[in-house]
Design goal:
The structure holds 3 protein chains of 3 kinds.
Chain A (H helix, E strand, L loop, with lengths): L1 H19 L3 H21 L3 H25 L12 H23 L16 H10 L2 H24 L2
Helix pairs in contact in A: 1-2, 2-3
Chain B lengths: L1 H35 L21 H14 L10 H18 L8 E4 L2 E4 L8 H11 L1 H10 L3 H32 L4 H7 L3 E2 L3 E2 L2 H4 L1 H14 L24 H26 L8 E2 L2 E3 L5 E3 L2 H27 L7 H30 L6
Antiparallel strand pairs in B: 1-2, 3-4, 5-6, 6-7
Chain C lengths: L4 H21 L3 H26 L3 H31 L13
The chains are: A mainly alpha, B mainly alpha, C mainly alpha.
């Protein structure tokens, strides 16, 4: 329980830093912190394989990509949204409405602690069993998607050279 | 409650091992490189200002070096980002400390009726945890290079991180074939599975099942730690010190520490996956069972100590091999380095995974016979 | 003691809302992309929490796919940003709005 509150506070604080800070590099590092908190949340929810994959893929590769682009383009300073006062108020209103709606939707479901899971719930073995039997087709399609993404990135990088 | 104490004790042991191995490696590197280069090495530091008639060579690196580094002035460039400049050494060192948490340094320690598994954290996804920590190690380099606000440092940082993420892939593929071979991701299980005997004589160490993966993992590990011949990011003759240029004093010592810890980690995971970890050939929990039929009963505490000693001996052998490689081979140029990682190691890794998967499928659990 | 799953669902909702706010508020395309990543992670937390509640591993399998797709999307998105930057010398969303000139 304490773990949950610690994770929640740090996650929300770092998420707010991501969207509010002026220095884009700090935003990226705050994103890493937020992603690591999400990984810990996965671990607390007995999703051990997904927690480790989150660290490897998200925190360890995706944000590194972000940092490369930020640093190569030397884009540190970014003035926050300057004007259009109505737009800022509208976005705050939309966000609060969304948060309240989602929160209520979450809270009307049955409260209380969940049932204890089987011993290796969320381990690599269990996820792999579902992944390679029931969800085999999406798995193969995802590999094709990754191939397409790789080819696309190489093409876009090459065209300017 | 007792479980908590045991866990904390194991974690502290892992941390202490990490730090001590680092310090010892500093000395071994100094004296080892001197040996290879046919010179004496550092031998000037002295205890008590020369009152003692002898000079313990080890004084230099075990005491003088760290003291010198820690007492130097900590210079931060004026235009540097102070927070990131302070943060980068911690980012470099922390994931490496954590990796030692899953390395098993012994089988079990039997205390009373309790069997303590000699591994700081028992993670069922151990291999993935190692990969995750290696992935997180990139941040120290990127942030360190960026925070110094200096061209050499930045270039070294970008080169270093690009190199690290490229060789992560080769390392990942080697680890995938290891996981395929043993059918588990837990390092302690893999170490235990290497205790069997093939054909009754040869210990079933991973090197016999996955020799290519061993070569791949070792090379990728050396490249990950940015040691020679892959040390262009900190190329001493070209980029001054690469991403570490603007660091001095204790921050520099943390970067150096991360270098040596990574040497120890590569050695530790290589021994765990390919050389039996803590296994001593023919030694089981109750004693020696030699192939000729001879059995020698050994008390369990002695067994545990022998296994721990064998683990450290193997780790030091591989550390020594890495030091040898560093001081023997010339440096790879950056494009050669990237070409080697992507065009040579990656296809070999993929082919290895495919062949291993085929063999596992056809021989139906070949390591479990 | 395990926190009730509803707590995680509410937390995911808050993270999602923060992500939305980021996309609406910031004009730097890279930070907008980072906010999208926040939203995706919030969705992942929801999936995993519900998987834990219903004791169905399928929720975690979906998260696996979401992570993969997000990685592909970030790679392409950043490649596009690099190409746009080469042309326009800016990553401010207000200034890349016009397809021509």
């Amino acid at each position: 329980m304490i773990l949950f509150w610690v994770l929640a506070v740090i996650a929300v604080a770092s998420a707010l830093t991501v969207i509010l800070h002026r220095n884009v590099v700090y935003c990226a590092l705050a994103l890493v912190v937020a992603l690591l908190q999400v990984a810990l949340m996965f671990a607390a929810l007995d999703a051990h394989l997904i927690a480790l994959l989150q660290v490897i893929v998200y925190a360890g590769a995706i944000v590194v990509l972000f940092l490369f682009v930020i640093m190569l383009l030397s884009l540190e300073r970014d003035a926050p949204h300057p004007g259009r006062f109505g737009a800022r108020a509208a976005s705050i209103a939309v966000t609060v409405a969304l948060a309240v709606e989602l929160g209520v939707a979450a809270l009307v479901s049955e409260p209380g602690a969940p049932a204890p899971p089987p011993a290796d719930f969320g381990s690599a073995r269990m996820v792999a069993e579902r992944l390679f039997t029931v969800h085999l087709l999406p798995f193969e399609l995802t590999s094709i998607l990754l191939l397409v993404a790789m080819v696309g990135a190489v093409v876009m990088a090459r065209r300017r050279a | 409650m007792v479980d908590l104490i045991i866990s904390v004790a194991l974690a502290l042991v892992a941390l202490v091992i990490c730090l001590q191995v680092t310090v010892l490696l500093l000395w071994i590197e100094r004296k080892g490189s001197a040996l290879i280069q046919d010179r004496v090495g550092a031998d000037r530091a002295n205890l008590f200002g020369g009152l003692l008639p002898f000079n313990l060579g080890i004084v230099n690196t075990l005491m003088a070096d760290p003291l010198k580094l820690l007492t130097k002035e900590d210079i931060v460039p004026a235009a540097a980002d102070r927070l990131l400049h302070w943060l980068a050494p911690w980012l470099a060192v922390f994931p490496l400390f954590l990796t030692f948490a899953v390395v098993p340094f012994g089988d079990v320690l039997v205390v009373g009726r309790r069997e303590i598994n000699l591994q700081a954290v028992e993670l069922s996804g151990g291999i993935l945890f190692v990969l995750a920590m290696v992935s997180l190690g990139v941040y120290g380099v990127i942030v360190g290079g960026w925070a110094s606000n200096s061209r050499y440092a930045f270039l070294g940082g970008v080169r270093g991180s690009a190199q690290m993420i490229s060789y992560e892939i080769a390392m990942g593929l080697a680890l995938v074939s290891v996981a395929l071979t043993y059918g588990t991701l837990d390092l302690q299980e893999i170490a235990r599975a290497q205790g069997r005997l093939m054909w009754g004589v040869v210990p079933a160490w991973g090197i016999f099942y996955q020799p290519i993966a061993f070569v791949l993992l070792f090379i990728a590990g050396i490249a990950e730690s940015k040691r020679a011949p892959f040390d262009l990011p900190e190329a001493e003759s070209e980029l001054v010190a690469g991403f570490q240029t603007e660091y001095s004093g204790s921050k520099m010592s943390m970067f150096m520490m991360s270098d040596f810890i990574e040497v120890a980690i590569v050695a530790a995971i290589t021994t765990t996956f390919f050389f039996g970890g803590w296994q001593v050939p023919y030694l089981y929990r109750d004693g020696f069972h030699l192939p000729g039929g001879l059995s020698v009963a050994v008390p369990s505490l002695v067994v545990t100590v022998l296994q721990i000693v064998s683990f450290f001996v193997k780790v030091f052998v591989f550390c020594w091999i890495q030091i040898l490689i560093r001081w023997s081979l010339p440096r790879l140029r950056y494009d050669q380095l990237m070409a080697f990682g992507w065009k040579k190691l990656l296809p070999v890794g993929l082919a290895n995974v495919t062949v291993s998967a085929l063999l596992v499928l056809l021989l139906d659990g070949w390591t479990r016979t | 003691m395990q926190a009730p799953v509803n707590h995680y669902l509410v937390l995911a909702a808050i993270l999602f809302a923060i992500g939305v706010f980021g996309v609406l508020l910031r004009r730097n395309v890279i930070v907008m992309l980072m906010s999208v990543e926040l939203m995706l992670n919030a969705v992942n937390v929801t999936f995993v929490a519900l998987a834990r509640k219903g004791l169905a591993v399928d929720g975690q399998v979906i998260v696996f796919f979401v992570m993969t797709v997000a990685a592909a999307e970030v790679a392409i998105g950043l490649a596009i940003i690099l190409a746009v930057f080469a042309q326009r010398r800016t990553v401010n969303a207000d200034e890349i709005g016009l397809l021509r000139w």
